[in-house]
Structure formats: C-alpha cells, structure tokens
Amino acid sequence: MGVMDKAKARAEAAIAKGKEGMAQGQAKLDAMQAKKHADALLRDLGAAYYAKERKGGPAGAVQAALAKVSAHEAENGVIDTSATAPTDGSTGGSYTIDDA
Q1: What 3-state class would DSSP assign to 88?
Q2: Closest of 90, 79, 88 to residue 42, by C-alpha
Q3: Rounded to the nearest 5°, which phi and psi values hold at 56?
Q4: Each residue's pLDDT tens digit, 7-55
Q5: How many H-runs (helices) and E-runs (strands) does the chain carry?
Q6: Among 68, 91, 79, which Cα is nearest to 39's?
Q7: Calpha distance 56→50 (Å, rounded)
Q8: Nearest CA to 34 among 79, 67, 70?
Q9: How far is CA 96 from the centre of its chain?
Q10: Directed axis angle between helix 3-55 and helix 59-76, to 10°?
Q11: Which of 9 and 99 is assigned the larger pLDDT?
Q12: Do 83 and 96 meet the contact criterion of CB atoms below 8 Å apart?
C-alpha cells in the first residue's frame, strides 16, 4: 500500500467519523427541539385546564390541547413529565402532580 493509498484510507475514515458525529449532533438537536415543543404543549394544556376550572373557560380548549399533546407523543415518543423544580430561583420548569 502506497503513501497515497494510506492517506486516502485515513481521509475516508476521518470523513466517516465526521459524518457519525454530525448525525449524533443532529439527533441531539432534534431531541432538544421536541422537548421544547412538548414543554410548550404541556404549558398550553395546563393553561387551558386552569382557565376551564377557575375562570369558566371552554372544555373544548382542554380537549384540543390534550389532542396536540397526544399527537406530539405519537410522533416523538412519551413525554417526560417527571418533576424537576428549578434550582435557579425561576418559576419555570416541569412539575409532577402526585395523585396520592
């Protein structure tokens, strides 16, 4: 195997590794975007439910928001609703409702 053949093999290996890294990065970006969208959908669902329960808002808004959450789950998998209280003093974040 000549010098050029070795260089070509190394270049091809580097390109393959680079493509693998790009695919992993894209997958992580897609997962982050799906989580951000799920968070927004859950916020909208909560707002619709609150409006219905406390302010006499329409039940249809809750059903529509729930349908959007279900559609998102069907496309992206189960939404993580585990509780993680914010540690930075903000009021944002996810909270779990304990049914007990």
Answers
A1: coil
A2: 79
A3: 75, 25
A4: 999 999 999 999 999 999 999 999 999 999 999 999 999 999 999 999 9
A5: 2, 0
A6: 79
A7: 9
A8: 79
A9: 17
A10: 160
A11: 9
A12: yes
Q: In this structure, which long-range contacts are made by residues 5-9, counting pairs with CB atoms below 8 Å and at least 24 apart in sequence? A: none
* Residue 90 amino acid letter: S
**What residue ranges do the domains of the chain occupy?**
3-72
* Residue 62 contacts residue 48 (beta carbons within 8 Å): yes
Contact in structure between 94 and 39 (CB atoms under 8 Å) = yes
- C-alpha to C-alpha distance for 2 and 81, rounded to whole angstroms: 57
Distances in Å between the alpha carbon of 10 and those of 3, 5, 22, 23, 61?
Answer: 11, 9, 18, 20, 58
**The token pair that represents 59 in the structure block:** 């039940």
How far is residue 77 from each of residues 7, 34, 66, 93, measured CA to CA in Å?
43, 10, 15, 20
